[in-house]
């Protein structure tokens, strides 16, 4: 491989953004990607369900401020929030209007309560420490805000980081899928696939050297976009070892797990659910193995199901069939035998990010007391000759493809500054 000015490790959203920014600046870039496709944890399967289905990143969150929004303008973005509707079941029956009003009020008060507690909260406070308990909907709100949205229990997340990374509407869906969208943005970039970097030498004054089964690639600077789970596990060896605080930051930003399944309709029965209807059931505990669903997106003939947090890890340990069985049991409990008749017995499509060797989880959260870890990990080393990027490095848009993209752009600017002999800017 030709030696570039800047080497990028990983062709997920952060790596693609970095490579595009480096190329736009007129510098040579090479991307080394362990997988045989771009996108990282954004991956669209367009064949199994006869429609695009995102197995990973699904939405462009906070679309009005999302750095990918301008690039998606020609991709027919769809405001999901404009059509959201919910069917919540209590012991198998739809929640009454008064019950739903109570649910909505409980949810509306949740973040305000946590923000009010923040000024007096100790440095190591978790998002669970000030969450209300005992009300009829408190566990349900905690279930959504923890395992479903953040892919981890509230007790495992730093209070400050949890509040700093809350996202605003609108949330866009792309009909062709986020993974397909990113694949389009990868077109024309110098990406070597099946090129897992095993060792990165970065202590030399002249630059960096990456090694793996592909051989050796030298560059003047490197941007590493691997998920924090891989960094913490030592999947990439750094020579010399990373500074202690950088290495600790990777451990302080573990990945939670949110797995997703698509189930295709067997015929015309749509279970009485309009397109984009959200289906859920009230839980008694935050960590219940309860699944949520979105029905027939864009009028297509499949349901999307989600399972997050500890229950997702448990299903992942049990094997690929466990998530499908949970989904079918959940729908059977809601609709009885009609669910089995309405859905095909095959053609399920499920993600398994916990067992994916290049992910080992879905997206990051900060451990209690470690809210600063995102900025620490995102701080350039060696004057910008070694930078980290990815959703875990973004202090505001963490856990999103938009955050990963913007962090890649930041890292590119830092590496380009290093080549010019200019000190890099601090993480924003």
Distance between the termini: 34 Å
Poorly predicted ranges (pLDDT <50, ≥5 residues)?
A: none
* Domains, number: 2
Biggest sheet, strands in spatial order? 8-7-17-18-19-16-20
CATH class of the largest domain: Alpha Beta
CATH architectural type of the largest domain: Alpha-Beta Complex
**What global shape is seen?**
globular
Report the strand count: 21
Judged by helices, strands and strand pairing, the structural class is alpha/beta
Largest sheet: 7 strands, mixed
From the alpha-carbon coordinates, what is the Rg to the nearest angstrom?
Answer: 22 Å
CATH fold-level label of the largest domain:
Polyamine Oxidase, Chain A, domain 2
Report the β-strand fraction as a percent range.
15-25%
Helix content: 25-40%
Mean pLDDT: 96
SS field, number of helical segments: 12
Task: Give an account of the 3D structure.
With 428 residues, this protein is of the alpha/beta class. The protein folds into two domains: 6-43 and 177-254 and 364-419, FAD/NAD(P)-binding domain; 79-160 and 257-355, Polyamine Oxidase, Chain A, domain 2 (Alpha-Beta Complex), CATH 3.90.660.10. 30% of the residues lie in helices and 20% in strands. It is built from twelve helices and 21 strands. It has helices at residues 13-24, 97-117, 138-148, 159-164, 178-186, 228-232, 244-251, 310-318, 320-335, 337-342, 373-378, 401-419, and strands at residues 6-9, 29-33, 44-45, 53-54, 59-60, 78-79, 85-90, 93-94, 172-173, 191-193, 197-204, 207-212, 215-219, 221-224, 237-239, 258-264, 277-281, 292-295, 302-308, 349-350, 386-388. It starts with 5 loop residues before the first strand and ends in a 9-residue tail after the last helix. The mean pLDDT is 96.
């Amino acid at each position: 491989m030709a030696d570039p000015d800047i080497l990028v490790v990983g062709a997920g959203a952060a790596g693609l953004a970095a490579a595009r920014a480096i190329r736009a600046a007129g510098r040579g870039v090479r991307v080394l990607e362990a997988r045989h496709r771009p996108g990282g944890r954004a991956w669209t399967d367009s064949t199994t369900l006869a429609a695009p289905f995102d197995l990973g990143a699904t939405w462009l969150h906070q679309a009005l401020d999302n750095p990918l929004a301008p690039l998606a303008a020609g991709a027919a973005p769809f405001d999901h929030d404009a059509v959201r509707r919910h069917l919540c079941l209590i012991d198998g029956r739809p929640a009454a209007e008064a019950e739903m009003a109570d649910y909505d009020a409980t949810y509306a008060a949740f973040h305000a309560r946590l923000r009010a507690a923040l000024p007096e909260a100790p440095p190591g406070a978790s998002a669970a420490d000030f969450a209300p308990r005992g009300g009829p909907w408190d566990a349900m709100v905690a279930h959504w805000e923890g395992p479903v949205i953040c892919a981890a229990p509230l007790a495992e997340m730093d209070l400050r980081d949890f509040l700093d990374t809350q996202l605003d509407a609108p949330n866009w869906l792309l009909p062709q899928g986020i993974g397909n969208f990113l694949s389009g943005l990868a077109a024309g970039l110098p990406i070597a696939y099946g090129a897992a970097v095993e060792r990165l030498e970065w202590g030399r004054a002249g630059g960096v050297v990456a090694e793996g089964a592909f051989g050796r690639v030298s560059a003047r600077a490197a941007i590493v976009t691997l998920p924090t789970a891989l960094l913490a596990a030592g999947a990439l060896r750094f020579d010399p070892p990373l500074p202690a605080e950088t290495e600790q930051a990777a451990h302080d930003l573990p990945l939670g797990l949110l797995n997703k399944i698509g189930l295709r309709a067997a015929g015309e029965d749509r279970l009485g659910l309009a397109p984009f209807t959200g289906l859920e059931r009230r839980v008694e505990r935050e960590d219940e193995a309860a699944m949520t669903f979105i029905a027939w997106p864009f009028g297509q003939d499949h349901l999307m199901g989600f399972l997050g947090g500890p229950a997702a890890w448990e299903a992942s340990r049990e094997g690929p069939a466990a998530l499908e069985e949970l989904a079918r049991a959940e729908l059977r409990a809601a609709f009885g035998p009609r669910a089995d008749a309405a859905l095909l017995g095959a053609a399920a499509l499920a993600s398994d990010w916990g067992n994916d060797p290049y992910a080992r989880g879905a997206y990051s959260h900060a451990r209690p007391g470690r809210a600063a870890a995102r900025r620490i990990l995102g701080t350039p080393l060696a004057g910008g000759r070694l930078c980290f990027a990815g959703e875990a490095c973004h202090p505001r848009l963490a856990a999103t493809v938009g955050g990963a993209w913007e962090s890649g752009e930041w890292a590119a600017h830092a590496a380009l500054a290093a080549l010019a002999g200019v000190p890099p800017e601090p993480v924003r």
